[in-house]
Structure formats: structure tokens, C-alpha cells
Amino acid sequence: MKFLEQLNRLLTSKKWSITLFALLCIILIPRALLPEKNSYVNTLATIILVLIAISLFLCTLHKYRSLKKSTLIIHIGSLVTLAGSFLSLLGFVATQNLHEGSSTETAYRWDVEKDSPLGFTLELTTIHREFFPVEIRIGVLKDSVKHGLFQTRTGKKFATDDIFVLPEQIDFDTKNLELRVFDKEGNELGNFSTATGLNTLPKNFPYSFKLVSYKDPTLKRIWVDLKIHRDGKRITQGASEVNHPFKWNDLNFYLTKVDLDQYGYPYAGLQIVKDPSVPVVFTGFGIICLGLACCLFSKHMKKNG
Asked: How far apart are alpha carbons 92 and 270 in whole angstroms?
């Protein structure tokens, strides 16, 4: 019993709490400098956090009657935040590269350092790119004879004779420019593809078009379309882009990069994150802020009272 009393006094003492916080700070410095996955440093930091949580819980339990309400609220918020940090141990971070139109049932989990089953099939259907308006030069032929050279940009109409032409978008892989053609009243006459010459314009339409040159494009936005299947049945689908992950159940699918492989085929890097601690940690922060507000309000009332 004497040993338990001494242990209890140690765990609830200010010196013990300050020592633990100092040790945690000492541990976190090399943790930030060493490689991300260092099991020894991470394990030691987790042990210290557990000891801090135990100390804070016992201190709150023994002294809750004598603590100010604001201090008690801060203690509770801190305990909730620590509980959330332990919940993060149940989560994981996994990565996978997928080519457009391909799928996978596994991903590389960094916590276990190996490919692990996802429990579903993840399919990357399409990689989308959106560019800022591109400066272009378009050659216009009338009855197969050069008619004019026009400088404009995608999304901006230009006029020749009694028609208006709207360059819409360029496929930079095929160097194909999609055009929409209108008459002088604004009625759409049809579409024209510069790379293939395929069009929906009226029969015997005298004009044709050619993409002569364009400036290097500047990427505005990039995103991917994802589908999730299980047992051959589609469960859900959505889009993921940088800073705007696709969310499903307790998983977040982040787009980390888009690039070309050695053969010139596009692929996307995906990061799959499961972190059940987020709502708990934010709840803990909210409770701590409430306690601090109560503390400031109490001091303000005393000062003006």
C-alpha cells in the first residue's frame, strides 16, 4: 500500500508532469530530423504520451473538486485530445500508383512496410487536366485555299467573313484543337477537329481549319475520377484532386501527383489515409478553447468586479 501511495504521489506531482513534457520535447526534436518511419523514436514518444495521459487522468480524478471549473475543462479537453492521438494508432497511410483505366486491390502500407489488401477494388478511370487559356494561331482554308491566319486563345471567338469560330480545348498529346463554328446570328453550325478533320458542319461547308502553333500551356487544375468496387459491384465513385480528397467511409483518397511512365503513359499517385482520431482531436481542442475562454472571462470579471 505504501508503494502504491508513493507511486500515486509521483504520478500526480508537478515535477513528474514537467519531466514528461521535457522528455517528450527532447524526443520530438530528433523525430523531426530522423527519417519519417523510425520505430524506436515513435515507440518512445508513444510511451511518454501514455504516461502523460495517466498522470493527467489521475491528477484530474484526485483534484477535480478543488480545481477551478476552467482548469477542469482544460484537463478534460487535454484528455480527449490525448485519447484522439492514441486512436490514430488504429489508422494507416497507404500509397499506390495507378495508370489511367487500371485498378488495384492492394496498396503499400507504410506502418507495416508492405503491400496489403484494401478490402475492395480501387479503379482510376480518368485523369483530367484543365489549363489556363492558351495562346494559339489557327490557319483557315476556304475551298482548300489559304484564307487567313488568326491569333487568338482558347475560349475566345474570332470572326472570318460571315462565321465565328470558338477554339475550345487542345489535346496536347494528339495536338488536336476542338472548334465550334457559328453563323453571324450566333446559331451553332457544328464542330471541327483540327487533327483529324472530322466535323459535324453542313455538307459542302467551304471552310476548314488547322492548328498552326500554340504557346506552352500552364496547368490550372488536375484531378482524377475514382471508382470503388467490391465483388464486381460498384459501391461508389468520386473525384480527387490536390487538397480536395475523395472521401468514402473513414478513408480519404488524396491525389499526390500525375506523371508519365517511361513509356509515356500517364499515371497518378494516390495516398489512402485512414485516421479515426481527427474528430476526437478537434473535439478535444474545442473543449480546451472553451476552458481557456472561461478562464479569461473569470479573470476579466474579477478585474472589473
From this structure: 14
